[in-house]
Every structure is written in C-alpha cells, then in structure tokens.
C-alpha cells in the first residue's frame, strides 16, 4: 500500500485483529463499487471494527497519522457518498449489527449502526411492534447509513423520514472521542440538538455507531388499492380527499406514470396489470391501522367509489389477497430495475410542496423534451410527501452514451424548476459527491456559510468523508 504509512496500517491491523481489516482485492471490490457506477472507489484497505471502542481507536490512529476516513454502511447509496480515494481508509460497520434492546414499554429499539434495516423490522415485528422505515434496499442497507443520509422511503407520509424515527445516537467524533447521546427521551430542550447534526450529515461530522429508534404499534389491518387517475392534479386532489376521508390512515400514496407502469409489467416476470383501463397516470394507495376492529377495506372501497364519482379516478381495484397486494407493490418497486431494459436513464431525486407536484411534472416534462426531443419521462414516487423520482429514459433512437452525456444539462433544467417551486434537489438520497456542486450553486449564501462553519467546528482537519456534501 504505497499511499498509506506502514506505521498506521500496522497499528490498525493490531487493533482490529485478522477479521477486522482486509487489503484483498476481491474483498475490496464490492466496497469500492458504487451503486450507479458513476464513481469508482480506490481504497486499498477496508476496516471492519466490531465495537464502538474499536471505531474510536481506529479513528484516533488515523487522526494521529493525518489519514482521512470514509464511513460505509450497506453501500446502497445513490450519490457517491461512501466512495473512498486511494489515500483514504474505508471503514465499514457491517460487523456491528446487534439489536441491543427492544423496549416494549418505551416503544424503542436500540441497535448498532451496522444492523440491516430489514433485520430491525423483523426483530420489532416479533414483539408486535413496527419500525416503519421502508426502502427498496432494506434487505441490504444498514441503519447507520439510513440515518447518515436521512433516508425517506415509502412511509414518510405517515411516519416521517429517518430523522423523525430516531430518538438518540452514539457517535464517534473526528478525534476518536465518543459522544453518547443514546437517549429514549421524546422531549429534550437542553441546548442545541446534537443528534440532528449527525443525521443527514453523511458521515462528514461523525461516525454513527448506535441508535435508539422510535417504534409504533404493528398494523393489524392493511388495505391496498390501485387507481387510474386522469392527471397529477387529480392525484393531488385525491390525496387531500383520502386524508380527510380516512382520518390520516394513509401509510403510502404513490404516483406512477403509465410509462413507468408499462416498463414493470413488460419486463419483470410474474407481474400482472392491475387494471384493463388505459391511463396516463396511476396511484397506489395503502391504508394501515393498529386498531383491531377497524374495517379499512370498507373505508377504502367508499373512498374509491367517491373518487370515481367525482372524476378524480376513472377506474380502481382493491387488493383482495396478499398475493394481489404484493403484485401491486412489485410494479411500483420494480420500476428502477425495469428502466434498465430500455437503455440509459437520467434520474432526479427531488421534492416540492405537495401542491406543486403537478406543476413540476408538467413543466419538467416539457422542458426535458425541448432539450432532448423524444426523451421518455418515467416519473414515479412518494407524491404524498412531495418526493418525485423524476427519471427520464433515453429516446428510443438515441445512442445511450450520447444521451448520458446530457446528464448535467438535464439536471440543470429540472433542478432550476424544482428550486423555483420552493423544492429540494435532494429529497431522500443525500448530496454525496453527485450533487456537491449543485448544492453550492442552489443553496443560499447564508446556508453554505453555516454548513461550512459547522464542518470546520466539528472536523477542522476535514478527515471525515472529505469531498462529500461540501
């Protein structure tokens, strides 16, 4: 390893033992890979600490030798936030995966940062409790990474982002000291909220090693429906109607374009079309309740009938079995995979106020077509919280590489509109390297000044995940 001091490497190896590090190229390869393939990691060593104390000592060793550290969870991120350079140490938390405690009276779970999201969900379910954070990558993403990027997912409309689901953290700081903020408190106004500094910071201020999570009663009833809607405007009005009609029992409300729907049912095996009706837009709605006597099916059927009667929907179907429900969700969740079968895709993870979603889609699709004639919009997402995955598939007759060369130009077009509508260029995937320059372009002078001041105060030498966010 020509770029890292032998003394530091030997100290790290002695600290962590044979299971706690690797320089093997086959081991490094998946950790140096990046989900979208836009960035390539160059780390020559990856560390696998087994405890907070080992993380702290490893950070202290790196600090003493002026070596930068890149924290990494499940490496499912989409913005290049966990990619390390050749002169940097990659620190992966997968060995720190314990479910430390599930407290049925406090409705909390205390876990290590390397715990897989799905493992946490399943452990809570065994106690008849729900941890509602739900993502497409939940079978491999780690909770530390979810918190570091303030992940959103499918249930934000009901339960909020990762930030809203966390009560306390334990964090290793850039000098190797440990801040123990593992609290179960629901109210604490004793000074600045340090927890919220580290959530969404993408490992640039500290390395999350443990978390106390907020739990809920596990739903006893679920009702799921698929609707054909005339337009995004109708979908927004339908959402407002549904919130009033169901008493905010909505757990998910997803808008799906016809192109996105058609990709899934065409390319993914075993999926069937929910409706015979042809439509430009679809809505997937799910209601949940933990109350044993709630009749969500009747509630949802009444909503569907009312929506059709007043013209907010043209057709609808209610899932009559778990198999039908899974089919509906597989259509929605399979869209990113299905897009790959049609060539290149330029993607945007953006959010606007819910009331502005329709305007974003109308203006964005028109502007994209003006920039790249024949471009095929593939928008879908969590319209219930204003987060649209505003993806675009290449024109059918265009060369893939020529299309992908337009990535930055198309980003600028969409992000300009998002900003004009009071939105965010990053709704739930973070900034990482991918959107670093755009954050510098779109954020206010005051915001950037504060961000730089916070980074300088906590990590003055810039050793934690350098080159990310700022």
Secondary structure: number of strands: 19
Biggest sheet: strands, sense, closure? Answer: 8 strands, antiparallel
Unreliable runs: none
Structural class given helices, strands, pairing? alpha+beta
- Please give the count of helices: 17
The helicity comes to 25-40%
Percent of residues in β-strands: 15-25%
Distance from first to last alpha carbon: 28 Å
What does the average pLDDT come to?
Answer: 96
Radius of gyration: 23 Å
Give a written overview of the molecule.
It is a single chain. It contains 17 helices and 19 strands. With 470 residues, the protein is of the alpha+beta class. The strands form 4 sheets. Strands 12, 13, 14, 15, 16, 17, 18 and 19 form an 8-stranded antiparallel β-sheet that branches. A hairpin with a 4-residue loop joins β5 (99-103) and β6. α8 (232-246) crosses α10 and α13 (357-371) packs antiparallel against α15. The radius of gyration is 23 Å and the shape is globular.
